[in-house]
Each structure stands twice: as C-alpha cells, then as structure tokens.
C-alpha cells in the first residue's frame, strides 16, 4: 500500500473511532443535502464542507438544489430524500411553511439538521451564525470606516431574501450599530434579489436614485461582488460592505472597491450538520432543537480573522482557500478533529441564542 493511501486510511479509521463509527456500517449511511440558491458560490462552499464531512466519516452524500428559495420546492426535495431511504437530511429552510412537513419527516424517524436558513418551528438543530451579532459587527465596521460616531450621510441597506429570519436579524444588527452615528440616514432594507444579474441591477438602480450615498451595505453573498463593480464604475465614491468569503467578493475587497466582508464559516455550516446527523444515526439518538454557532469571520484588505480559533492567515491565503475545497478542508483539519462524539451529543443552547 502506498504511503499516501495508508495515511488516508489511518486518518479515516481514526475519525471513525472518534465518532463511534465502523467503516463497514458507515458505508451504508446516505445523507441527503438540500440547498437553496443553486449555483451560488457561497452555497457551493457549504456543500464542499458537507462533502468533506461525508468523506471523513465514510458516508455517502447526495445533493439536491433549487434556484432561488421557494420553500415548497425545497420541502419536496427533502421529502424525496426521506422517501428514497436517506438516513438523514441536511437542509436550509427558506420558509416557515416547511416546518410542518419537516416535522413529519422527523417524527417518522429521519433526522433533520438545518443550516444557513432556519425555521424556529422545526424540531431540529440549526448550524449557522449568530445573525444579529454578525450584523452588529458589519455595522460597526461601516461606522468606523465612515469616521465613527460623527459619521454623516445616507446608507443604503439591501436584502436579497426579504422575510427570511436570519437576514432580517442581520438587518437589525446592522441598523443597531449604524444608529450610533446620529448623522447617518439609513434607508432600506430594499429587495436586491439573489441572482447575480438581478442583484447588480437592483444596486445600480438604488445608487442612481441616491448618488450621494456614503455607504451601500448588503446582507447576502452576491452583494459584495455587485457593489465592488458598481463602486469601480463610479470612481469608488462609497463604502461597500457585506457578507461571505467567495472568490469574487474577496477580489472586490483586495482591489479596494469594497471595504469589508463578513464570513459566516461556510465550511462549518456544511461539515457540522453532517457530523451531527451521522453521530445521531450511529448512536441511535434523536436530534432535538438547538443552536450550533458556526462563527463569524471579518475580512478587510488589511486584516483576516477566520474565527473558531483557526490559525491566522494572510489575505492571499484566504483567497486561495475560497478557490480550493481541498485546501479548505486541510485548513480546518484541527477543528474537525475536535468534533468528538461527546461534544456532538452534548445539549446545545436553544435556537433562540442564534438571534441574541
């Protein structure tokens, strides 16, 4: 056996022992993974994290996605997995109307784990950021960049999925921080849509209507890329801030067309739900509601904070990770090794902690 293969086999065996999994039985486990916003680079990063967990734990991951965020379509994909024999389903929940159907699947004995978008009505754990707090962080960064408490001018706020609790919570946090500068006039949040083309067009229209705006702040993954292009086309006259560490978002920050992007640990949002599901299946335990904080990351051109106790990296290294799922999995290896069965079986805080 080649040395590299031997090392890989030993690592898989070690991880299996940590989770109480025998490789033969693990191979019989299929986890369904369902996501919104098909094709979005940030959602792909979450999927990459889920696949890394499946690879580490020796289980099969089957993926289904839908464009946009229609809850009816998302629920149908989850039901298809449950009906076809998947032992668990990991899913984002882009609508409260999914709760009844998801709870029926849970009652039938199929574990559900939520990620990224949640419903508090679902009797399942949720892995994601502390949404209000992440908004506070973003708002503070914008205020500081504009000059602190004495900042003045109009700030435009955009939301690609109005009504989604996580995004509404982000908006609350951003607005809370911006209010500390009495001279800032915050307008919005406006619906800026999620598709790349529509997102840019909406921001372009908003800026054309408010050409003296001093800052444009988005709450979703496509925004930084759109705002970077818009700022570059208008002489970089406003401060741009938003979310997620995608390749194009980081490029906009590096080139100076956007100031800050807040990551929400996409790898963790993919990896941890799969680990929770597998641990529950192997232990014969029911997964109840609870909040698992994926952590927030803060990235400007001058500083990269990856959160979760992860090693410090340069901006260039952050860019490499955004483009390389294998490198990202390697970077998170010490974190993944910390996910013992005891930790995964411990009672988490209530889901309400997500919005504190």
Beginning-to-end CA distance, first to last residue: 52 Å
Q: Please give the radius of gyration in angstroms.
A: 20 Å
Uncertain stretches of 5 or more adjacent residues: 1-24
Percent of residues in helices comes to: 40-55%
Q: Describe the biggest sheet? A: 7 strands, mixed
State the CATH topology of the largest domain.
Answer: Rossmann fold
Order of helices and strands: HHEHEHEHEEHEHEHEHEHEHEEEHHHH
In the CATH hierarchy, what is the superfamily of the largest domain? Response regulator
Estimate nothing, just give the exact number of structural domains: 2
CATH class of the largest domain: Alpha Beta
Task: Describe, in plain words, how this protein is organized in 3D.
There is one protein chain. By secondary structure, the chain is of the alpha/beta class. Helix content is 47%, strand content 18%.
In short:
It is built from 15 helices and 13 strands.
Keywords:
single chain; alpha/beta; Rossmann fold; 13 strands; globular
Write the layout of secondary structure elements.
Elements: H1 3-18, H2 23-26, E1 30-35, H3 41-57, E2 60-65, H4 71-83, E3 88-91, H5 99-107, E4 112-115, E5 125-128, H6 131-146, E6 152-159, H7 165-178, E7 183-191, H8 196-209, E8 215-218, H9 223-233, E9 239-243, H10 247-254, E10 260-263, H11 266-283, E11 290-293, E12 297-300, E13 304-305, H12 315-323, H13 325-331, H14 333-337, H15 341-345
Parallel strand pairs: 1-2, 1-3, 3-4, 4-5, 5-11, 6-7, 6-8, 8-9, 9-10
Antiparallel strand pairs: 10-12, 12-13
Helix pairs in contact: 3-11, 3-13, 6-7, 8-9, 9-10, 10-12, 12-13
